[in-house]
């Protein structure tokens, strides 16, 4: 919840900053317009009206953006009934990428990573429970960022923390791939990571339920979740979902 809240707080701050800035500028423009009206300079008044219209359009745009983030937050906080609905998978993936990244940055201001995205436009709308699949994405992405942070703290020269996020559609399946260039998962524990309460994190930093719940959610969608990892090189999770 802290990761999601941190991400949402950061995400919502951006459009609110735009709304506040354009509102302040518009107030100043109105003062200018009053002066130009008194001077009888209608050409300048028309120019100011044009600027005001543009500012109001930007305020509306960013206001709607903030509104959609709040709605997403409320939807996420509700207990899911698992109802599936046609969902733009690329949009969902991108939304949770930003939330996970800003959630990590909210907890660790020094954290930075390259976000490399490749969204297949043919993926389109997929029938899924968006809130549940959002939890899966948030978990996989947060784990990836934590792996990058862990490796970055070792101070290896030339290391550039990177997450690759990719969607693809093939035949009757879509796949979401989350890959990081962190430390990787040791082979000895790779088969255990989807077991309830199994965690590689230090005590107090993980419940060991994230990947187990993600596994169950993906299975409930008729899909599968796979992992490939190489110690010292990184990890890749693939969420594969059926489509009609």
Describe the structure using short key phrases.
7 strands; elongated; five-stranded mixed sheet; 19% strand; alpha+beta; 6 helices
* Percentage of β-strand residues: 15-25%
Helix-strand category: alpha+beta
Topology, number of strands: 7
* Shape verdict: elongated
Strand count, sense and closure of the main sheet?
5 strands, mixed
Radius of gyration: 23 Å
Order of helices and strands: HHEHEEHEEHHEE
**Contiguous runs where pLDDT drops below 50 for at least 5 residues:** 203-208
* Number of contiguous helices: 6
| Average pLDDT number | 86
First and last CA, distance: 33 Å
Strand order of the largest sheet: 2-4-5-7-6
Helix content: 40-55%
Kindly describe this structure:
With 244 residues, the chain is α+β, with helices and mostly antiparallel strands. It has 6 helices and 7 strands; from the N terminus they run ααβαββαββααββ. It has helices at 2-39, 42-77, 89-107, 130-152, 187-190, 210-220, and strands at residues 85-88, 114-119, 125-128, 162-170, 173-180, 224-230, 234-242. The strands form 2 sheets. Strands 2-4-5-7-6 form a 5-stranded mixed beta sheet. Strands 1-3 form a two-stranded antiparallel ribbon. A hairpin with a 2-residue loop joins strand 4 (162-170) and strand 5 (173-180). Helix 1 packs antiparallel against helix 2 (42-77). The longest helix is centred in the first third of the chain and has 38 residues, at 2-39. The radius of gyration is 23 Å and the shape is elongated. The model is unreliable at 203-208 (pLDDT under 50).
